[in-house]
């Protein structure tokens, strides 16, 4: 049970953030991202948020132009992951205020800091937005 | 601000974004990489800020999919920067760019350790996170103790401890030895008393990993998990920050329920009751609300609760409630819920009792097979496949066939394979099976693997009744205007063999058959032509007296292909031409194919193999384990015991009987068909003399007669045709033997021993039948169900099951039917009442008849003494008075047991546990001793407490002293003997203890353990 990777991809298929929790070579990542993007981006709103790919599942959610795609093991609880995506978005929203693709693109490091606080080794560490954002706020104050 | 500080990064990102095409992007990236490379070269001039900026750029470039093969050292070196911003970048980028085996990582191990054991909380967090993400074995070995200390430390703040928990999880996965099971179980249990939900969330992930490997060691965590779940479900003491849309941390709830699924059962009635109350509330109290997020979160919890209920094997009522819920879900509009409904219903199939309720939803599930969403269609297909059995196979397979014509290409192969398997597994009659496969080939020929059509050929060859039917059917298909090449292959093969059985039907004269096949020849590839040539030769052989015109036509074809570039075709053409001029001899040579030996279906095997890839749930596997029809075998009517073979009496076939046995892998099918096609190459290409032919055929003419005859016939010609024939002759023998005596599959004794420890499994299996068992024990009553599964396409007759009960058991077997229909499973409940303690074993005397084989087996039934035990925890206050009051024989017996299978103490504890003796830790202060308690139930003794103490000698694990006490002398004796049997069951080197002196442990031990160890001596005094 666990998260294997988290991808943020815009609707043109450009990767905006990629965090893997298992080691893949660059070629493997490229291939994987290509396949997933092709599969998921073509889906409609009326279709479910889960796509089976190779031997795992992609749980995804779309926010405006940005897709959040999370690869999980087959026995993972899909809805819990789906809402975890939303929690991530809400957390970013609290920090950036009306978060958009550009925020994530130009503040790549912050997006990474937040993810670091939320997921470790493929498992959820923290779900309290305040706790997630505390270190980032401290750092902002310091600099 | 970081943003301010890294203008260069923003500029670069913006440049890349403005690139018009991939080529421009590459140029911009290459330029930047060159820039970074030169800056890193004279590192001295770099400020920490610049370094940080460049490292981020590297990560960005890497994320875009470009190789970054330098600068790793710089990233790693930032880890040792004194200031937080640089250090943070170092840690994060390192864990993104490097894998755990990277050399640079090893160089950093000391810095990382210093951060972990240092005083700076934020540094601790960074270091723990990186190790948690990419730490390898070396990290595990050098850091695990420090990480454990942090996790348990009371002075550490939650923000550090939650990371320590997941860091330890990583280290544990890299090297399980870093967590010492004995000591850690208690600590883990203490960890679960934590109030902070962040620490709990990550500790729960750690627990899931630990219990998935060894649930016994962590049983004390079970009630804690239930408490946590109760706290969350009742929303007690849950801070607002951890409440998500009004739901107390759905993620922790889900994880906790996941952890609970790793414990096989919940013994403690109070814990069980509390848990079921919580689950009941979740099942009943989850309503559909407008807010999507709230709805998802509450359903995430609900689906996990469903899984837990299934796992706990709840009462039937609760199960039906679950199926009802799922039935509702698969019909809703919301696609996510529909998908999950189908997925969980498939998981639910493993609960035997609810299969009938699931079947009521068949129509709805079939609708989902046509859903616009492929994810949902996949789930529906999986579910239909899983729920298929003899009763609904016809409907389901026909649905699948119908769907096949419109299905997406990506699904067709899976779909046709599944349809083929189901048709084979559950065919009510074989003509239906043939219909299904031919339809499959017709509709989805491109997706039909060779295995599928090989299989239908095997079925037809082995069942005479089927042959005319199949021949007529393929003729119909062949007459259609567009025919798939696979259909041409299978038709040509079957018509070649059996078209003469169509007799005088209109349009079925040899000539007409020939021309319908030959019409297709121009459309087929070179791999099919050999099959057509064989068919022509066979047709020619069957048209007696020879039709001159047909003969000329066919000879012309053979002549034409004599110079074919393809060696296989050429050879066949030459040989068939030569052979067909032999006149009557042709009859012998080209006679019908012999039957195939029984073997496992290549298709099933393929499905099992494909499973890993196809992202399927384990449903198929589970199903396969449950259902008896797993190992599919062709009905083999090979006459045993010399009964005359039903078909060709002059059974001369120029074909090697494929000598593979049923357990060969699926390639055997392949080989089988190549063999029969290929064996003609054995004929001497020069015009063979009649003698030689006779010789050749002699030893091969062995369809009916047993091996001995073969040998005797073979001898006279061995001088001529030595080698290959000898091989062929002997290759036949094992098959003959196999049909005479039925060999069990698997080891009967091992199966029995496994069933002594668990309550369901396979008791016996052979090529025809599988006997499964499922048992429930309550006090001195037991209810076993025998599952008798016929694995064949023919019925099993004269089925008889007789129970030979020992004196202490009252056993009643319900009626066992005389015949078991093909592929069916019969359930026979068996009631058991335990009258008094005894170690005697009940025996099932089982017999059945298959074809002419009478099979009889005597099987021990796993209704043993330990099944009437109920583990019970006993506290010191209860234990000692009891122990003292039962003084001396016959109520308390002591024995020194020698020749014990040596095992470490925890293993022995596990063994006792598995026999339902509850280990009571802490009662005996000597760590080398075990104290256990249990309750025994029988009609005469009622519930009776039994106490056990085992004193082991760490210096000599082959001996121990065992003391047993209960309120019944027979019980004490029997239980003592029972445990003894278990401990010495595999005697290893029985001579070892000879050197050791009588009862008391040896005095001259290097560790004078008994006398020196005060608490133990104390306890011994007490005892």
Automatic annotation (TrEMBL), chain A:
GO aspect biological process, one term: vesicle-mediated transport
Keywords per UniProt: Membrane, Protein transport, Transport
Localization terms from the record: Endomembrane system
Native source species: Theobroma cacao (Cacao)
Record's protein name: AP complex subunit sigma
InterPro entries listed in its UniProt record: AP_complex_ssu (IPR016635), AP_mu_sigma_su (IPR022775), Longin-like_dom_sf (IPR011012)
Similarity-based family: Belongs to the adaptor complexes small subunit family.
AP complex mu/sigma subunit domain mapped to chain residues: 3-142
GO cellular component, one term: AP-4 adaptor complex
Main location, first listed in the record: membrane
UniProt keyword Transport present: yes
Superkingdom, taxonomy of origin: Eukaryota
Signal peptide coordinates: none
UniProtKB/TrEMBL annotation, chain B:
Subunit structure: Adaptor protein complex 2 (AP-2) is a heterotetramer composed of two large adaptins (alpha-type and beta-type subunits), a medium adaptin (mu-type subunit) and a small adaptin (sigma-type subunit).
Domain named Clathrin adaptor alpha/beta/gamma-adaptin appendage Ig-like subdomain: residues: 753-862
Residues that coordinate or bind a 1,2-diacyl-sn-glycero-3-phospho-(1D-myo-inositol-3,4,5-trisphosphate): 7-8, 49, 53-57
Family from the record: Belongs to the adaptor complexes large subunit family.
Top-level lineage group: Eukaryota
Entry GO MF terms: clathrin adaptor activity
Source taxonomy: Eukaryota, Viridiplantae, Streptophyta, Embryophyta, Tracheophyta
Annotated SMART domains: Alpha_adaptinC2
Record-given protein name: AP-2 complex subunit alpha
Known function: Subunit of the adaptor protein complex 2 (AP-2). Adaptor protein complexes function in protein transport via transport vesicles in different membrane traffic pathways. Adaptor protein complexes are vesicle coat components and appear to be involved in cargo selection and vesicle formation. AP-2 is involved in clathrin-dependent endocytosis in which cargo proteins are incorporated into vesicles surrounded by clathrin (clathrin-coated vesicles, CCVs) which are destined for fusion with the early endosome. The complex binds polyphosphoinositides.
Originating gene: LOC110412499
GO cellular component: AP-2 adaptor complex
Pfam families for this protein: Adaptin_N, Alpha_adaptin_C, Alpha_adaptinC2
Location in or out of the cell: Membrane, Coated pit
InterPro entries for this protein: Adaptor_Complx_Large_Subunit, AP2_complex_asu, ARM-like, ARM-type_fold, Clathrin/coatomer_adapt-like_N, Clathrin_a-adaptin_app_sub_C, Clathrin_a/b/g-adaptin_app_Ig, Clathrin_app_Ig-like_sf
GO terms, biological process: clathrin-dependent endocytosis; intracellular protein transport
Topology in the lipid bilayer: Peripheral membrane protein
Species, as recorded: Herrania umbratica
Keywords, alphabetical: Coated pit, Endocytosis, Membrane, Protein transport, Transport
